[in-house]
C-alpha cells in the first residue's frame, strides 16, 4: 500500500513537471488575453493568425519553429526583439525565413518585455475564444417585429385610400346622373339664359383683374428663368457614386488619417490631386479585410467592405496570396466632384499656406457652434463625417467674394508680415473698419485679374 502511494505521488510530480515544461515551451505561461491586445497593437500590420499577410500566419508559431528549425521560445524572444541581429549571427533558420518572405525586413521590438512576448506567444498558441456577439437571429426578429406594425400601418393606409377613391367615384356618378336629369328638365333653359356665352365676355367684365394676373405671372416666369440661369453649374450636395467605395468617415474620422497624407499636393501645389492607387496600397498591402466591425453603415456588411478592398488589389495588380504585384493593372475612373471652370484661377497652396489660420479664424467666428480645426473643412465641409463625399458649398463667384470680404488677413503670418510691412499703416488708414482690421478685399481680393486672366 505504501509502495503504491509512493509511486502515485511520483507519477503526479512527473506529470506536473511535464505539463509545466510543456506550457513553458509552447508559450502557455503567458496571458492570452493580454497577448491579444499586444498582438493587435504591434503585429497586425504585417501578420494575421490564420493567413499570410506581409509575413507568415502566426497561429501555432511556437510549435512551428520547434518542428521546422528546432528552436525554442528563447530563440523567438531574440527574433522578435532584434531579428536582424539573429540573422547577422549566421543563424541558418533565421536566414531561411528571411529569404522565404522576399527579404522583407521585420520591425524590431526591443521595447517588448519578456512577459509581453510570452503573452503574445500564448495568444498565438491558444487564442481565447471570441466573445459571443449579439444574437443575429434575435436582432433580426426584433427588426421584423418593429417592421411589422409599420407594414400593417401601410396596408391600412392603402385600404383606406382605395375606399376613399371608391366613395369619390360613386359620388361623381351620382352627380352625373343628376346632371343628366337636369338636362332633360325645363330648369336647364333658365340656367342657359344667365350663363356667360364666351371667354371674351368674362375678360371684358374682369379685364383689370386679368391684366393684373398676367403681369404677376410674367414676373414670376421671369424670376423663375433668371433663378434657373443663375444656378447653372452650381452643384451643392452633389455626391456621385464612385467605382470603388471610399468612406472618408472611416479613414479621416475613425482612423484619424491626415488629409495631406493622401492629398499631398493640396498644401504646396495649385491643384489637390486625386491620390494614386499606390497611396492606398501603402496601408492596404497589410489590410486585406475590414475588421472595424464597430462601425458599419446601415445596409453594408463586412463582405461589402472586403469586396471594395479587393477592387483596390485588382486595380493595382496586387496578389494578396503571393504578396507581390502581377503587373496586370486596371485604371480606376473616378468621378470628379469639385471642378473649377476653365476661366477661374484658384491656387490651393495660396489658401492653405498663406491663408490657413485666417480662414479657420474667420469660419469659426461666423460659425461658433460649428467650428473647424483644419482649413480644408472651410470649403469642403466636414469631410471626416462623410461616408460619401459631397460638394458642401456653392462655389459660386458670390460665395468666394463674400469670403474675401469677411476674412481678416493674418498679418502675423510670416509671409504677410514681410510682404506687407510697408503697407500696414496705409492700409489701416484706408480701411479703418473694425479698428483697422484688414480683410482680403483690401489687398486685391476683389480684383478681377486675381481670379480671371
From TrEMBL:
Cytochrome c domain ranges (all copies): 30-128
Regions that span the bilayer: 157-174, 213-234
Segments for region (Disordered): 125-147
Protein name in the entry: Cytochrome c2
Organism whose genome encodes this protein: Chryseobacterium geocarposphaerae
Pfam family, one: Cytochrom_C
High-level lineage: Bacteria, Pseudomonadati, Bacteroidota, Flavobacteriia, Flavobacteriales
Transferase in keyword set: no
Keywords from the named record: Heme, Iron, Membrane, Metal-binding, Signal, Transmembrane, Transmembrane helix
Gene3D superfamilies referenced in this protein's UniProt entry, alphabetically: Cytochrome c-like domain, Cytochrome C3
One of the record's GO molecular function terms: electron transfer activity
Signal peptide: 1-25
Domain of life (superkingdom): Bacteria
